Amino acid sequence: MHGLGPYLVLKLISECGTDMSRWPTAKHFTSWLALSPGSKISGGKVLSSRTRRTKNRAAALLRLAAATIGRSQTGLGAFYRRLASRLG
Prior knowledge:
- The chain is α+β, with helices and mostly antiparallel strands.
- It contains 4 helices and 2 strands.
- The chain has a two-stranded antiparallel ribbon.
- Helix 1 (about 5-15) runs antiparallel to helix 3 and helix 3 packs across helix 4.
- The protein starts with 5 loop residues before the first helix and ends with a helix.
């Protein structure tokens, strides 16, 4: 996969490990990485939605991989650029 080199994958495995049973679902894993937004909701209306700051090295590695894919001339890179332009 573009953006994920052997060095980055090795660092991700060293940070997260190979036993993914620690997180029951993918949502738990993204929350542990601090990549899921924390929504402030009042009366059914979303007031704000931002990801929290973290010093998690695995999250930083995944952000680096996303930026690398965004610069690539692939279909996934084009999708990333369309999404990034829409989200700002």
